[in-house]
Amino acid sequence: MLDLAIIGGGPAGLSAGLYATRGGLKNVVMFEKGEPGGQITSSSEIENYPGQKSPGESGFDFMSTWWAQCSHFGLVHKWANIVGVRQNADKSFEILLEGGKSEQAKAVIVATGSVPRRAGFKGEDEFFGRGVSTCATCDGFFYKNKEVAVLGGGDTAIEEAIYLANIASKVYVIHRREEFRAAPTTVQKARQNEKIEFITSATIKEAYGDKSGLNGLILNTKEGERDLKVPGVFTFVGLNVNNEILKLEDGSFICKMSEGGQVDVDLKMQSSVPGLFAAGDIRKDAPKQVIVAAGDGAVAALSAMSYIESLH
């Protein structure tokens, strides 16, 4: 039986593996169906991780050294697609692998993350990472004193528009309705910002550009088509949380979840099921930042070590 199973190989999972193995656990396996690194490896540039030797390096280069450090202390990477997590009668856990196989573990850290939903307009995939982004904190700086657009009407979209207004020369907020799901106070704050212009009852028909990246957006508005010439658009239309492995056969979840489908955890990253921890984007109220995910992983590992020690 494994001491600790870590599901997910992004910053949260790798950080958990590092702290667990360096902390003395001898039988720790990180399950990841691909190369370790996570979603951040697709980012074109990272500048906001403290202590970086080369600010502006790609996400792939940034994560390239993490696995060597983790494996040095004994973390094992098992290439596997996990399809479920179940708790046994003795309170240990069964990790269900694709193909019918399984592994047993005393404790589990789930760090499977979440994936930003795509809005579905033409050109979105083509220019993703070259003008289309889902993270204003990550990429907003690259549009300093330029005009940008934000797509969405929830709290995240409006909050990020306000954030971008501190960097960009102008921010267009595109929303398909007249009303917003965001808190009225947040919307009011955005409306009072002279650098933010609202374009409501509108959708993005197409993103266009060239080899250098995005040049603009074609919008469908109530007045007809509009050509919005912006080099960047930030889409905030929700997240798809990677929580399928926590679902039981009847469709319920193994542990308590938030309304958005994230794992409800305490400050120790402990879920409602003792011995089952969550870290990174899959946990409730995660800020979706690498530095936070790494911190979550460390906390989860330390908590898991204490839990495993209590079993003896």
Show the helix and strand layout.
Elements: E1 2-7, H1 11-22, E2 28-31, H2 59-63, H3 66-72, E3 76-78, E4 82-87, E5 93-97, E6 102-110, E7 114-116, E8 132-133, H4 136-139, E9 147-151, H5 155-165, E10 170-174, H6 184-191, E11 196-199, E12 203-210, E13 213-221, E14 224-228, E15 232-235, E16 239-241, E17 276-278, H7 290-310
Helix pairs in contact: 1-3, 1-7, 5-6
EC number: 1.8.1.9
Family: Belongs to the class-II pyridine nucleotide-disulfide oxidoreductase family.
GO molecular function: thioredoxin-disulfide reductase (NADPH) activity
CATH fold category name of the largest domain: FAD/NAD(P)-binding domain
CATH-derived architecture of the largest domain: 3-Layer(bba) Sandwich
Order of helices and strands: EHEHHEEEEEEHEHEHEEEEEEEH
| Low-confidence spans | none
Q: Helix share of residues? A: 10-25%
Number of domains: 2
CATH class of the largest domain: Alpha Beta
β-strand amount: 25-35%
Q: Give the CATH H-level superfamily of the largest domain.
A: FAD/NAD(P)-binding domain
**Helical segment count:** 7
- Total beta strand runs: 17
Q: Span from first to last CA?
A: 14 Å
From the alpha-carbon coordinates, what is the Rg to the nearest angstrom? Answer: 21 Å
Class by SSE composition: alpha/beta
Q: Characterize the biggest β-sheet.
A: 7 strands, mixed
The shape is: elongated
Q: How would you state the average pLDDT, rounded?
A: 93
Organism: Campylobacter curvus (strain 525.92)
GO molecular function, one term: thioredoxin-disulfide reductase (NADPH) activity
Family: Belongs to the class-II pyridine nucleotide-disulfide oxidoreductase family.
Keywords: Disulfide bond, FAD, Flavoprotein, Oxidoreductase, Redox-active center
